[in-house]
Amino acid sequence: MFATILLCLVDVLHAFAIEEKGDVFKRMACPAFLMFDNAAYLADMTFELPCNCKPEEVSSVIWYFQKNMGSHKTTVLTDFAGTMVVDSGHIHPGSSVLKRFSIRMFSLIVFRAQVTDSGHYLCGTKKGDYFYGYDVDVQPTKHVTVAFLDRGQHVQDDYTGQIFSLFTTFWDWTRCDRCGVRGEQRRIGLCYVRSAQLHPRYRTAVPNVTSCGSNAVPAHFQHPDHLRKPEVAIRSCLIPCLKKEVPEEGVQVISNVISKLGEKPWLPRIPMQFHQQSIGSDLIIMCPGARPEHAVAWDKDSVRLYRPRYLISVNKSMRVFIDHGNHLHIQRVRVSDRGTYFCWREGEMVAGFRLSVIRQRRRRRTLSDPETIYAIKAIGMSYTFISIIFIVAHLCRCCWSSGQALLSSQTTSVIH
Fold first, then answer.
1. Which of 40, 241, 308, 328 could form a disulfide with 179 if both were Cys (CB 3.0 to 4.6 A apart)?
2. 190: pLDDT confidence band, cut at 50, 70 and 90?
3. How confident is the model at residue 356 (pLDDT cuts 50, 70, 90)?
4. pLDDT of residue 339
5. Which neighbouring-strand residues pair with 166?
6. Which phi and psi angles does 123 have, rounded to 5°?
7. How far, in Å, are 16, 82, 143, 413 from residue 10 at the CA level?
8. Any idea which UniProt keywords this protein has (predicted)?
């Protein structure tokens, strides 16, 4: 009975949500001339594009993607047959956008966006009628400029040219990534350009201002995104941990007795995963539920992995580092890397990873192994090359000897 009532309530709420969405479309009329709203993101982020207007009689929409305006190559994004992947945890960053999107309540959601996803997104129908458009600029995380404010470093100065100027627009500071101990905060900044020569078909929040990779930037400009990169500012912080609710006294005593049986009191009470990795291989650890815009921190046992030392590209010879997507990388795993790695998210420790390092058993090579085939080809090519050199050298020697003999015979006949 209770389950039936609950399902009815869910249906009512879902219908109410659809009705609310319909009211939005009634209030907003579609523009007579299709414009494109500018939106900028950092690579590996997940973004959502709402279809802000559509005719009332249209019950479903199709999203279209065009890299450049007027291009004959258009990608159709529709989940009429069911979207293949909607769980962002199963998505690889190098996969096609066709495997990284979902349509929910007429809005397009793209998971773990890549630089190649930059372009025009249009909301329309199967017939090719367009209602709303976006100009999406996904800026790369490679070669991001990093400023550690605790070291006295500063963010980039604005660039001013003759026909355009460049500056960085920063998002709000993230929450402190740890609590009870010294943590860190990040502030992501994206590249923007200001010019009076921007394409008028692209709509921006501030007049004459758009992101550096936008299609509104004229082609004759000296690529602004090459002159300025996204940047990240990092500073230290310290916040107290939130007190968790304590159960009733009797329940607390029983739970303490049960929890202490077979428990290691020095380890935090968080979900723990166990993983084995072979020596010499590479490992990437992801924090559960974390996204690039979240405040994420990593510890190894009792050692804090702070970004001034472990952020990617701080040192060219780094083997253990944290990338701008908050993933922990361990390259060429060693025995010393074994231990417990803890993940903090939004100021709370959420997961632990117990890493054990094993030696990979040697196996006998067969002729079908790729390594064996490569070695045979390399040895064969080397033998062929050396044989050619040997034959050419002997031919040259024979020609030289024949020439010398002919010359000596001619000299002898002249003397006689």
1. 241
2. very high
3. very high
4. 94
5. 159, 193
6. -100, 125
7. 10, 22, 47, 116
8. Glycoprotein, Membrane, Signal, Transmembrane, Transmembrane helix
